[in-house]
Specification:
The longest helix has 18 residues. The mean pLDDT is 91. This protein is mostly helical. The chain is built from 7 helices and 2 strands, in the order ααααααββα. A hairpin with a 5-residue loop joins strand 1 and strand 2. Helix 1 packs across helix 2, helix 2 packs parallel to helix 4 and helix 3 packs across helix 4. Strands 1-2 form a two-stranded antiparallel ribbon.
């Protein structure tokens, strides 16, 4: 569920660092969603999107999606098949019940922890398509 206050905080983070006219509202909302509420991830996404938008002059959703694909590619190269299986289970359950196995994924920001109420976690939003791809591959093999 979207946290309206959190989304607005992340939008303000961007507005204070760049002219808001340089990004569309949809692109900003997608960047906020993709950041998972992590400021360093938001900066990473914006940096990648800005690089892609330079010829155009305004960040569009496709620039944010390209940043997402770049992030996903980085994770694709470093995550083991065992870690990917753990990420699939975490995404379904969203609980921090395997701390020894989750700790490295938290450090990589492949898993994000939230404390709005009872602590819970979920995978980095950029990883959802990766896990869906693998689930589809598993069904066809």
């Amino acid at each position: 569920e979207r946290d309206r206050k959190g989304y607005e905080t992340m939008r303000e983070f961007v507005r204070r660092r760049m002219n808001p006219e340089l990004i569309t509202r949809k692109a900003l909302d997608e960047a906020v969603r993709l950041s998972g509420g992590v400021f360093s991830e938001m900066a990473r996404i914006m940096r990648a999107a800005i690089q892609r938008a330079r010829p155009v002059g305004r960040i569009q959703v496709e620039h944010v999606k390209a940043a997402e694909a770049e992030i996903r590619g980085e994770y694709r190269r470093i995550l083991t098949s065992e870690q990917r299986a753990l990420l699939r289970r975490l995404h379904e359950r969203q609980c921090l019940d395997e701390p020894d196995r989750i700790a490295p994924l938290l450090q990589l920001l492949a898993v994000l922890e939230y404390a709005n109420g009872e602590p819970w976690c979920d995978i980095h939003p950029a990883l959802e398509p990766l896990l869906h791809e693998e689930a589809e591959l598993g069904r066809t093999e």
